[in-house]
Amino acid sequence: MTSTPTAPSEAPGTSTVVEELARDAAVLGGPEEVLSEEQVDTFVREQLGHADLDGRSVCVVVPDGTRSCPLPLLLKAVHGALAGRASRLTVLVALGTHAAMDGDRLRRHLGGDSGTLETAYPGMSVVNHEWWDPDTFVTVGTISADRIGELSEGRLHRSVDVRLNRAVVEHDVALVLGPVFPHEVVGFSGGNKYFFPGVSGQEVIDLSHWLGALITSAKIIGSRGITPVRALIDDAAALIPTEKLALCVVVRSGSDDLHAISFGDTRSAWAAAAQVSAETHVRYLDAPVKRVLSVMPPKYDDIWTAAKGFYKLEPVVADGGEVILYAPHITEISAMHPEINEIGYHCRDYFLAQWDRFKDVHWGVLAHSTHLRGAGTYDEQHGEHLRVTVTLATGIPEDVVRRANLNYLDPTSVDVAAYEQDPDTFVVPQAGEVLFRLR
Q: What is the pTM of this model?
Protein backbone atom coordinates (compact mmCIF):
# COMPACT_ATOMS: atom_id res chain seq x y z
CA MET A 1 0.00 0.00 0.00
CA THR A 2 1.80 3.13 -1.16
CA SER A 3 -0.79 5.81 -1.86
CA THR A 4 -0.51 8.97 0.25
CA PRO A 5 -3.89 10.69 0.53
CA THR A 6 -4.04 14.45 0.67
CA ALA A 7 -5.51 16.35 3.57
CA PRO A 8 -9.03 17.74 3.22
CA SER A 9 -9.38 21.50 3.28
CA GLU A 10 -10.34 21.59 6.94
CA ALA A 11 -8.62 19.57 9.68
CA PRO A 12 -10.49 18.59 12.85
CA GLY A 13 -10.28 20.62 16.02
CA THR A 14 -10.08 24.17 14.62
CA SER A 15 -9.54 26.62 17.48
CA THR A 16 -11.10 30.09 17.54
CA VAL A 17 -8.37 31.21 19.94
CA VAL A 18 -5.64 30.14 17.51
CA GLU A 19 -7.41 31.86 14.63
CA GLU A 20 -7.62 35.08 16.62
CA LEU A 21 -3.94 34.91 17.58
CA ALA A 22 -2.95 34.29 13.97
CA ARG A 23 -4.53 37.56 12.84
CA ASP A 24 -1.77 39.49 14.62
CA ALA A 25 1.01 37.87 12.57
CA ALA A 26 2.40 38.82 9.18
CA VAL A 27 2.18 35.81 6.84
CA LEU A 28 3.63 34.95 3.47
CA GLY A 29 2.51 31.83 1.59
CA GLY A 30 -0.05 29.14 2.34
CA PRO A 31 -0.79 25.40 2.20
CA GLU A 32 -0.67 25.12 -1.58
CA GLU A 33 2.29 27.43 -2.15
CA VAL A 34 6.04 26.93 -2.39
CA LEU A 35 8.00 30.10 -1.72
CA SER A 36 11.11 31.11 -3.61
CA GLU A 37 14.33 31.87 -1.76
CA GLU A 38 14.02 35.50 -2.88
CA GLN A 39 10.52 35.77 -1.41
CA VAL A 40 11.67 34.32 1.91
CA ASP A 41 14.76 36.53 2.11
CA THR A 42 12.74 39.66 1.31
CA PHE A 43 10.03 38.82 3.86
CA VAL A 44 12.54 38.21 6.67
CA ARG A 45 14.50 41.38 5.97
CA GLU A 46 11.37 43.51 5.67
CA GLN A 47 9.75 42.20 8.85
CA LEU A 48 12.89 42.51 10.94
CA GLY A 49 13.62 45.88 9.32
CA HIS A 50 10.35 47.21 10.72
CA ALA A 51 10.93 45.72 14.20
CA ASP A 52 12.39 47.78 17.06
CA LEU A 53 15.80 46.09 17.14
CA ASP A 54 18.29 48.93 16.65
CA GLY A 55 20.98 48.88 19.33
CA ARG A 56 19.40 45.92 21.12
CA SER A 57 20.94 42.51 21.78
CA VAL A 58 19.21 39.59 20.06
CA CYS A 59 19.32 35.87 20.91
CA VAL A 60 18.17 33.79 17.92
CA VAL A 61 16.81 30.41 19.10
CA VAL A 62 17.05 27.77 16.37
CA PRO A 63 16.27 24.02 16.11
CA ASP A 64 18.86 21.26 16.07
CA GLY A 65 19.30 18.83 13.16
CA THR A 66 16.24 16.69 13.95
CA ARG A 67 13.86 19.06 12.11
CA SER A 68 13.54 19.71 8.39
CA CYS A 69 14.26 23.39 7.91
CA PRO A 70 16.17 25.59 5.40
CA LEU A 71 18.04 27.12 8.31
CA PRO A 72 20.95 28.52 6.23
CA LEU A 73 18.51 30.49 4.05
CA LEU A 74 16.65 31.84 7.07
CA LEU A 75 19.70 32.60 9.18
CA LYS A 76 21.47 34.43 6.36
CA ALA A 77 18.42 36.65 5.96
CA VAL A 78 18.26 37.27 9.72
CA HIS A 79 21.97 38.07 9.86
CA GLY A 80 21.62 40.38 6.88
CA ALA A 81 18.78 42.22 8.59
CA LEU A 82 20.42 42.52 12.02
CA ALA A 83 24.19 42.75 11.47
CA GLY A 84 25.22 46.31 12.28
CA ARG A 85 21.85 47.04 13.92
CA ALA A 86 21.80 44.70 16.87
CA SER A 87 24.34 45.46 19.59
CA ARG A 88 24.96 41.73 20.00
CA LEU A 89 23.78 38.72 18.01
CA THR A 90 23.83 35.18 19.44
CA VAL A 91 22.46 31.95 17.97
CA LEU A 92 21.32 29.42 20.57
CA VAL A 93 20.68 25.86 19.35
CA ALA A 94 17.60 24.49 21.13
CA LEU A 95 18.68 20.95 21.91
CA GLY A 96 16.03 20.20 24.50
CA THR A 97 17.83 17.19 25.92
CA HIS A 98 19.32 15.97 22.61
CA ALA A 99 23.04 15.52 22.02
CA ALA A 100 25.12 18.62 21.30
CA MET A 101 26.02 19.50 17.72
CA ASP A 102 29.78 19.65 17.12
CA GLY A 103 31.63 22.18 14.97
CA ASP A 104 31.27 20.45 11.59
CA ARG A 105 27.62 19.58 12.13
CA LEU A 106 26.87 23.11 13.28
CA ARG A 107 28.60 24.58 10.25
CA ARG A 108 26.57 22.41 7.86
CA HIS A 109 23.38 22.94 9.85
CA LEU A 110 23.61 26.72 9.96
CA GLY A 111 25.11 27.32 6.53
CA GLY A 112 28.81 27.89 6.98
CA ASP A 113 29.27 26.53 3.46
CA SER A 114 32.92 25.61 2.90
CA GLY A 115 34.25 28.16 5.40
CA THR A 116 33.67 28.84 9.07
CA LEU A 117 30.61 30.20 10.81
CA GLU A 118 32.66 33.26 11.79
CA THR A 119 33.32 33.95 8.11
CA ALA A 120 29.72 33.30 7.05
CA TYR A 121 28.19 35.33 9.88
CA PRO A 122 30.63 38.01 11.06
CA GLY A 123 29.84 39.36 14.50
CA MET A 124 27.52 36.49 15.38
CA SER A 125 28.28 33.88 18.06
CA VAL A 126 26.81 30.35 18.10
CA VAL A 127 26.27 28.21 21.21
CA ASN A 128 24.62 24.90 22.01
CA HIS A 129 22.04 24.76 24.77
CA GLU A 130 24.26 22.99 27.32
CA TRP A 131 21.43 21.39 29.29
CA TRP A 132 23.84 19.09 31.13
CA ASP A 133 25.57 22.07 32.82
CA PRO A 134 23.69 23.59 35.81
CA ASP A 135 25.37 26.94 35.16
CA THR A 136 23.44 27.15 31.88
CA PHE A 137 20.22 28.05 33.65
CA VAL A 138 18.56 30.96 35.38
CA THR A 139 15.23 30.83 37.22
CA VAL A 140 12.60 33.30 36.01
CA GLY A 141 9.77 32.35 38.35
CA THR A 142 7.44 29.63 39.59
CA ILE A 143 4.05 28.42 38.42
CA SER A 144 1.92 27.53 41.44
CA ALA A 145 0.33 24.16 42.08
CA ASP A 146 -3.14 25.74 41.81
CA ARG A 147 -2.29 27.19 38.41
CA ILE A 148 -0.84 23.86 37.22
CA GLY A 149 -4.08 22.21 38.32
CA GLU A 150 -6.02 24.72 36.24
CA LEU A 151 -3.79 24.44 33.17
CA SER A 152 -3.72 20.64 33.30
CA GLU A 153 -7.51 20.43 33.69
CA GLY A 154 -7.05 18.72 37.05
CA ARG A 155 -4.53 16.10 35.95
CA LEU A 156 -1.57 17.46 37.96
CA HIS A 157 -1.27 19.52 41.12
CA ARG A 158 2.28 20.60 41.86
CA SER A 159 4.27 23.81 41.51
CA VAL A 160 7.13 24.03 39.04
CA ASP A 161 10.24 26.21 38.96
CA VAL A 162 10.70 27.79 35.55
CA ARG A 163 14.36 27.68 34.50
CA LEU A 164 15.81 28.31 31.07
CA ASN A 165 19.06 29.10 29.34
CA ARG A 166 20.44 32.34 30.73
CA ALA A 167 21.37 33.52 27.22
CA VAL A 168 17.68 34.17 26.55
CA VAL A 169 17.37 36.41 29.62
CA GLU A 170 20.70 38.14 29.05
CA HIS A 171 19.58 39.52 25.67
CA ASP A 172 17.01 42.23 25.06
CA VAL A 173 15.14 40.21 22.45
CA ALA A 174 14.70 36.47 21.87
CA LEU A 175 13.89 35.62 18.25
CA VAL A 176 12.59 32.10 17.68
CA LEU A 177 13.49 30.86 14.20
CA GLY A 178 12.20 27.45 13.19
CA PRO A 179 9.53 25.14 11.77
CA VAL A 180 6.10 24.08 12.99
CA PHE A 181 4.96 20.44 12.73
CA PRO A 182 2.33 18.24 14.40
CA HIS A 183 3.77 17.25 17.77
CA GLU A 184 3.08 14.36 20.13
CA VAL A 185 3.35 16.34 23.37
CA VAL A 186 1.97 19.80 22.63
CA GLY A 187 -0.25 19.43 19.52
CA PHE A 188 1.85 21.50 17.12
CA SER A 189 5.50 22.36 17.71
CA GLY A 190 7.10 25.79 17.40
CA GLY A 191 6.65 29.17 19.05
CA ASN A 192 7.19 29.12 22.80
CA LYS A 193 8.07 25.43 22.59
CA TYR A 194 11.55 26.58 21.52
CA PHE A 195 11.94 27.90 25.07
CA PHE A 196 10.18 25.01 26.83
CA PRO A 197 11.54 22.38 26.38
CA GLY A 198 13.97 23.71 23.74
CA VAL A 199 16.24 25.62 26.13
CA SER A 200 14.58 24.92 29.48
CA GLY A 201 15.47 23.19 32.71
CA GLN A 202 14.38 19.66 33.49
CA GLU A 203 11.47 20.72 35.71
CA VAL A 204 9.25 22.11 32.95
CA ILE A 205 10.40 19.40 30.54
CA ASP A 206 9.30 16.66 32.93
CA LEU A 207 6.02 18.28 33.90
CA SER A 208 4.95 19.23 30.36
CA HIS A 209 5.89 15.89 28.84
CA TRP A 210 4.15 13.88 31.54
CA LEU A 211 1.06 16.02 31.15
CA GLY A 212 1.13 15.17 27.44
CA ALA A 213 1.54 11.49 28.30
CA LEU A 214 -1.47 11.58 30.64
CA ILE A 215 -3.57 12.99 27.81
CA THR A 216 -1.82 10.53 25.42
CA SER A 217 -0.02 11.25 22.18
CA ALA A 218 -2.82 9.88 20.00
CA LYS A 219 -5.29 12.41 21.45
CA ILE A 220 -3.05 15.48 21.52
CA ILE A 221 -0.95 15.18 18.36
CA GLY A 222 -2.09 17.52 15.60
CA SER A 223 -4.65 19.31 17.78
CA ARG A 224 -5.03 22.86 16.46
CA GLY A 225 -6.23 24.35 19.70
CA ILE A 226 -4.39 25.63 22.76
CA THR A 227 -3.83 22.23 24.35
CA PRO A 228 -3.16 21.97 28.10
CA VAL A 229 0.55 21.49 27.35
CA ARG A 230 0.63 24.53 25.05
CA ALA A 231 -1.12 26.55 27.77
CA LEU A 232 1.51 25.43 30.27
CA ILE A 233 4.48 26.43 28.14
CA ASP A 234 2.81 29.72 27.26
CA ASP A 235 2.47 30.46 30.98
CA ALA A 236 6.13 29.58 31.50
CA ALA A 237 7.17 31.80 28.57
CA ALA A 238 5.19 34.72 30.02
CA LEU A 239 7.68 34.75 32.92
CA ILE A 240 10.61 35.46 30.58
CA PRO A 241 11.43 39.19 30.87
CA THR A 242 12.94 39.32 27.37
CA GLU A 243 10.85 40.52 24.42
CA LYS A 244 9.85 37.43 22.45
CA LEU A 245 9.47 37.41 18.66
CA ALA A 246 9.28 34.55 16.16
CA LEU A 247 9.78 33.73 12.52
CA CYS A 248 7.87 30.45 12.15
CA VAL A 249 8.02 28.42 8.95
CA VAL A 250 6.04 25.57 7.45
CA VAL A 251 8.38 23.25 5.58
CA ARG A 252 7.47 20.78 2.86
CA SER A 253 8.45 17.65 4.77
CA GLY A 254 11.77 16.09 3.85
CA SER A 255 12.88 19.14 1.89
CA ASP A 256 14.08 22.70 2.27
CA ASP A 257 11.04 24.12 0.49
CA LEU A 258 8.75 26.42 2.44
CA HIS A 259 4.98 26.60 2.15
CA ALA A 260 4.72 29.61 4.44
CA ILE A 261 6.52 31.91 6.86
CA SER A 262 5.00 34.07 9.60
CA PHE A 263 6.34 36.82 11.85
CA GLY A 264 5.06 38.29 15.09
CA ASP A 265 5.28 37.56 18.78
CA THR A 266 5.89 33.91 19.68
CA ARG A 267 2.17 33.17 20.10
CA SER A 268 0.77 34.86 17.01
CA ALA A 269 3.51 33.71 14.63
CA TRP A 270 3.12 30.14 15.92
CA ALA A 271 -0.66 30.24 15.55
CA ALA A 272 -0.44 31.40 11.94
CA ALA A 273 2.08 28.69 11.03
CA ALA A 274 0.17 25.99 12.92
CA GLN A 275 -2.91 26.66 10.80
CA VAL A 276 -0.88 26.11 7.62
CA SER A 277 0.85 23.04 9.09
CA ALA A 278 -2.56 21.53 9.85
CA GLU A 279 -3.36 21.74 6.15
CA THR A 280 -0.03 20.42 4.85
CA HIS A 281 1.33 18.01 7.49
CA VAL A 282 -1.85 16.09 8.34
CA ARG A 283 -3.11 13.51 5.86
CA TYR A 284 -6.05 11.17 6.01
CA LEU A 285 -6.78 7.51 5.32
CA ASP A 286 -10.24 6.06 4.77
CA ALA A 287 -9.59 2.89 6.76
CA PRO A 288 -7.07 1.63 9.34
CA VAL A 289 -4.05 -0.35 8.17
CA LYS A 290 -2.69 -3.61 9.55
CA ARG A 291 0.97 -2.70 9.25
CA VAL A 292 3.09 0.43 8.79
CA LEU A 293 6.68 0.50 7.60
CA SER A 294 8.10 3.84 8.74
CA VAL A 295 11.31 4.48 6.83
CA MET A 296 13.33 6.80 9.06
CA PRO A 297 15.71 9.37 7.54
CA PRO A 298 19.32 9.79 8.78
CA LYS A 299 18.56 12.95 10.76
CA TYR A 300 17.17 10.69 13.48
CA ASP A 301 20.19 9.00 15.02
CA ASP A 302 18.59 7.12 17.92
CA ILE A 303 15.16 5.78 18.85
CA TRP A 304 14.61 8.70 21.21
CA THR A 305 14.23 10.91 18.13
CA ALA A 306 13.17 8.30 15.53
CA ALA A 307 10.15 7.40 17.66
CA LYS A 308 8.36 10.11 15.67
CA GLY A 309 7.91 7.41 13.03
CA PHE A 310 5.50 5.78 15.47
CA TYR A 311 3.84 8.90 16.91
CA LYS A 312 2.79 10.13 13.49
CA LEU A 313 1.31 6.76 12.42
CA GLU A 314 -0.30 5.33 15.56
CA PRO A 315 -3.71 6.90 14.81
CA VAL A 316 -4.17 4.92 11.55
CA VAL A 317 -3.07 1.47 12.77
CA ALA A 318 -5.79 -1.11 13.39
CA ASP A 319 -6.15 -2.81 16.76
CA GLY A 320 -3.60 -5.62 16.87
CA GLY A 321 -1.61 -4.02 14.06
CA GLU A 322 2.09 -3.23 13.84
CA VAL A 323 4.42 -0.29 13.25
CA ILE A 324 7.92 -1.16 12.02
CA LEU A 325 10.57 1.53 12.46
CA TYR A 326 13.05 0.80 9.68
CA ALA A 327 16.35 2.54 10.39
CA PRO A 328 19.45 0.38 9.81
CA HIS A 329 21.66 3.38 10.62
CA ILE A 330 20.42 3.60 14.23
CA THR A 331 22.53 1.66 16.73
CA GLU A 332 21.20 2.77 20.12
CA ILE A 333 17.91 3.49 21.82
CA SER A 334 19.01 6.77 23.37
CA ALA A 335 22.34 8.55 23.32
CA MET A 336 21.48 10.85 26.21
CA HIS A 337 18.86 9.01 28.31
CA PRO A 338 20.11 5.59 29.45
CA GLU A 339 17.17 5.33 31.90
CA ILE A 340 14.94 4.26 29.02
CA ASN A 341 16.99 1.08 28.64
CA GLU A 342 16.26 0.28 32.28
CA ILE A 343 12.50 0.90 32.35
CA GLY A 344 11.72 -0.11 28.75
CA TYR A 345 8.66 0.90 26.75
CA HIS A 346 5.20 0.63 28.31
CA CYS A 347 1.76 2.17 28.07
CA ARG A 348 0.68 4.98 30.38
CA ASP A 349 -1.39 2.77 32.67
CA TYR A 350 1.61 0.52 33.36
CA PHE A 351 3.32 3.42 35.12
CA LEU A 352 0.23 4.86 36.80
CA ALA A 353 -0.63 1.49 38.36
CA GLN A 354 2.90 1.23 39.80
CA TRP A 355 3.54 4.91 40.50
CA ASP A 356 5.54 4.39 43.70
CA ARG A 357 8.00 2.33 41.67
CA PHE A 358 8.45 4.86 38.87
CA LYS A 359 7.66 8.30 40.29
CA ASP A 360 11.34 9.19 40.79
CA VAL A 361 12.32 8.46 37.18
CA HIS A 362 12.46 11.64 35.07
CA TRP A 363 8.90 12.15 33.94
CA GLY A 364 10.14 13.12 30.49
CA VAL A 365 11.63 9.64 30.15
CA LEU A 366 8.38 8.03 31.32
CA ALA A 367 6.50 10.16 28.79
CA HIS A 368 8.77 9.10 25.93
CA SER A 369 8.23 5.47 26.94
CA THR A 370 4.44 5.79 26.76
CA HIS A 371 4.52 7.79 23.53
CA LEU A 372 6.41 5.08 21.66
CA ARG A 373 4.43 2.20 23.17
CA GLY A 374 1.09 3.80 22.44
CA ALA A 375 -2.32 2.94 23.82
CA GLY A 376 -2.75 0.02 26.19
CA THR A 377 -4.03 -1.19 29.53
CA TYR A 378 -2.42 -2.67 32.62
CA ASP A 379 -3.56 -4.29 35.82
CA GLU A 380 -1.78 -6.51 38.29
CA GLN A 381 -3.85 -9.59 37.49
CA HIS A 382 -3.75 -9.49 33.66
CA GLY A 383 -0.54 -7.57 33.07
CA GLU A 384 -0.02 -5.23 30.14
CA HIS A 385 -2.12 -5.36 26.99
CA LEU A 386 -0.91 -3.12 24.14
CA ARG A 387 -3.05 -2.03 21.22
CA VAL A 388 -0.25 -1.98 18.63
CA THR A 389 2.99 -3.96 18.23
CA VAL A 390 6.13 -1.83 17.87
CA THR A 391 8.99 -3.44 15.95
CA LEU A 392 12.51 -2.09 15.49
CA ALA A 393 14.36 -2.97 12.28
CA THR A 394 17.54 -1.12 13.22
CA GLY A 395 21.19 -1.68 14.01
CA ILE A 396 20.36 -2.11 17.71
CA PRO A 397 21.16 -5.64 18.96
CA GLU A 398 18.16 -7.95 19.33
CA ASP A 399 18.69 -8.55 23.05
CA VAL A 400 18.66 -4.80 23.75
CA VAL A 401 15.47 -4.33 21.73
CA ARG A 402 13.60 -7.16 23.41
CA ARG A 403 14.79 -6.10 26.86
CA ALA A 404 13.18 -2.74 26.16
CA ASN A 405 9.82 -4.50 25.56
CA LEU A 406 9.86 -3.99 21.79
CA ASN A 407 9.81 -6.48 18.90
CA TYR A 408 12.91 -7.11 16.79
CA LEU A 409 13.26 -7.52 13.02
CA ASP A 410 16.57 -8.07 11.27
CA PRO A 411 16.97 -4.93 9.10
CA THR A 412 18.76 -6.94 6.39
CA SER A 413 15.52 -8.90 5.87
CA VAL A 414 13.51 -5.78 5.07
CA ASP A 415 12.62 -5.46 1.39
CA VAL A 416 10.96 -2.05 1.08
CA ALA A 417 9.78 -2.74 -2.47
CA ALA A 418 8.09 -5.95 -1.35
CA TYR A 419 6.34 -4.14 1.50
CA GLU A 420 5.13 -1.53 -1.00
CA GLN A 421 3.41 -4.30 -2.96
CA ASP A 422 1.75 -5.71 0.15
CA PRO A 423 -1.88 -4.49 0.40
CA ASP A 424 -1.75 -4.85 4.19
CA THR A 425 1.29 -2.57 4.60
CA PHE A 426 1.41 1.21 4.44
CA VAL A 427 4.95 2.33 3.57
CA VAL A 428 5.89 5.85 4.67
CA PRO A 429 9.18 7.19 3.28
CA GLN A 430 10.84 10.04 5.18
CA ALA A 431 8.62 9.27 8.17
CA GLY A 432 8.53 11.40 11.28
CA GLU A 433 7.03 14.74 10.29
CA VAL A 434 3.71 14.12 8.52
CA LEU A 435 0.83 13.01 10.74
CA PHE A 436 -1.65 10.42 9.45
CA ARG A 437 -5.19 10.23 10.76
CA LEU A 438 -8.40 8.38 9.89
CA ARG A 439 -11.17 10.41 8.32
A: 0.92
